[in-house]
Amino acid sequence: MDDGTCQVYEDEIRLLEEEIKLLAEKYEDGQQESTSFSDEEILMSIKSFQREFQGESKGHESPSDLKAQLESLETDLSFLMKFTGIQFTNHSKKTVEKSKNRTVQKHRLSGNCHSLSFQLEFQLLEMQNKENVSAVITDLTIIMESGDDSDVRKFVSSTEEHGNLLTFFRSLSSYAEWYEHRRRTFLHFKVVY
């Protein structure tokens, strides 16, 4: 091989090594920054929190009372998931900034609503003064499979601009339900014809 070919390969190897180093650093940062919780971990946290909260506010309740409350919460959660069709599959949060009266957290959510998947990333800014606590959503990014539906893209853009998650989830639930109906209807016609 001539020197020019060797130099090209050496340059390519150097670039790949740098890329590997950057990806390794990103991976390490991601591992340190992100805290993902499984369903079991979430339920264990809920149980632990309930025990602490109930112990502080009402004294010691019997395990059967706590179990009944937990079952009630699980029933409510199941009802809400069936009613809205929204199921969260992953959540992570990272505290970006924390001071005496200001906290900024970065959240990542992913999930499904009927047959549509979605991902959200946003920052939650909480400010506290003597009277109350206010929370504002900033830097909202929504990734959703919308196909070629320009109305959905417009809606997502508007939601990202205004940072209104409640409106997003209400609209997503309704849209995804009808999207699923349309999908099944078109599948029916494809099978028939």
Keywords:
193 residues, 2 domains, four-stranded antiparallel beta sheet, 26% strand, CENP-P, Centromere protein P, coiled coil
Strand order of the largest sheet: 1-2-3-4
Strand content bin: 25-35%
Q: Please outline the major beta sheet.
A: 4 strands, antiparallel
Q: Tell me the quaternary state.
A: single chain
Helix and strand run: HHHEEEEHH
SS content category: alpha+beta
Describe, in plain words, how this protein is organized in 3D:
The protein has helices at residues 3-33, 39-58, 63-84, 150-162, 165-192, and strands at residues 86-98, 102-113, 116-128, 133-144. The protein is an alpha+beta fold and 193 residues long. The chain has two domains: 1-34; 85-192, no CATH class. The radius of gyration is 24 Å and the shape is extended. The termini are far apart.
